Amino acid sequence: MKIKMVHADNMEELFAQVSEVDKAQDIDDELIGTSIDFIKVSDSKTIYCEALVYRTGDDDEDL
Fold first, then answer.
1. DSSP per-residue letters across 1-63
2. 9 to 3, 24, 37, 54, 57: CA distances (angstroms)
3. Strand 45-55 to strand 2-8: parallel, antiparallel, or no bridges (unpaired)?
4. Alpha-carbon span 48 to 10, nearest angstrom
5. Residue 62 confidence (pLDDT)
6. Strand 30-42, strand 2-8: pairing
7. Alpha carbons 57 and 44: distance in angstroms, whole number
8. 63 near 15, Cβ under 8 Å?
9. How far is residue 8's CA from residue 1's CA, in Å, rounded to a whole number?
10. Is 7 exposed, middle or buried (0-12, 13-18, 19+ CB in 10 A)?
11. Most exposed of 3, 5, 6, 63 (fewest Cβ within 10 Å)?
12. Could you give the CA distance from residue 55 to residue 2 in angstroms, rounded to a whole number?
């Protein structure tokens, strides 16, 4: 299993970065889950985060 974290200042930038990360994965990596979170830094600043979880290797592989 492989987890990639992406963060950005707005949702548009976040989705662009997620798309780039997804394209860069090995052909055998299977995206099995995502999780989006929002971190409010101040009244005018929010950081958008997304975790992407990929299945890698054989199904019989010990984790």
1. -EEEEEEESSHHHHHHHHHHHHHHS-TT-EEEEEEEEEEEEETTEEEEEEEEEEE-S-TT---
2. 21, 22, 12, 24, 33
3. antiparallel
4. 6
5. 55
6. unpaired
7. 42
8. no
9. 24
10. middle
11. 63
12. 6
Residues making up the chain, counted from first to last: 63
Q: Which residues pair with 7 in a beta bridge?
A: 49
As a whole number of angstroms, the distance between CA 60 and CA 5 comes to 25
Please list the ranges in the chain whose pLDDT falls under 50: none
Place of tokens 């019989």: 60
